[in-house]
Amino acid sequence: MNTTDSGYYVVIFSSTLRSAQLDEDSEYARTARRMAELAAQQPGFLSVESVRQGLQGITVSCWQDLAAIARWRQHPEHQAAIERGRQHWYEDYHLRICRVEKAYRGPARDTAVPGDTQQDGRG
Amino acid sequence: MNTTDSGYYVVIFSSTLRSAQLDEDSEYARTARRMAELAAQQPGFLSVESVRQGLQGITVSCWQDLAAIARWRQHPEHQAAIERGRQHWYEDYHLRICRVEKAYRGPARDTAVPGDTQQDGRG
Q1: What value does the mean pLDDT take over residues B10-37?
Q2: Which residue, A4, A6, A28, is CA-closest to A81?
Q3: Strand A9-17 and strand A90-106: pairing?
Q4: Which of A55, B47, B64, B77 is the most exposed place for a label (fewest CB within 10 A)?
Q5: A95, B105: Cβ pair inside 8 Å?
Q6: Which CATH number fits the domain that encloses residue B67?
Q7: Range of the domain at A50
């Protein structure tokens, strides 16, 4: 599945850390890496991207369907990490599960999904 | 509308800049600030959050409906900024328009939308 398609699902995880976890060997950093690695092994996983700026972070992971997201959420190692995050690492977080309705890529490969009428194109 | 609700829409804008635009007075930085300010004035706008780490950035904006997103996309000043971005600033970008199906907040205010059965709670 190409993620310029629509109809798949994304999980947007926006977080604020309690303190900057800059040490790449911190338990937080090690857990974050392990979760990215483990997520990528789950059935229905498509892709993940993650950006952090100081205490603020946004991670967007893409999944084939809601069932895949639910299964990943129930994974014992993930559950343990979620609980650890709630208790120790995050000041706040906001998790949104969303269905992708339309997707575009740019600037060179600016393609809309078929049927979209908002796209003005470049000629 | 509280963004722990569902049924609203998000635009996920993931981008890679051609070069680090660290100067806060660069045309890119000024345009990015202006677009955030202008977006917030549009009917149907709910919220925006943006994180950048080196060349990689993720911006998530929330909107009441698809019509609000389409109107903002058609705004002349926004159109000009999109074109400028395509031509000059972005190596690549990926824009996804999504419908929020479920939303959670944590860790202190860990609430699920009604009807969700994946939430295991904390006690």
Answers
A1: 89
A2: A28
A3: antiparallel
A4: B77
A5: yes
A6: 3.30.70.100
A7: 9-99
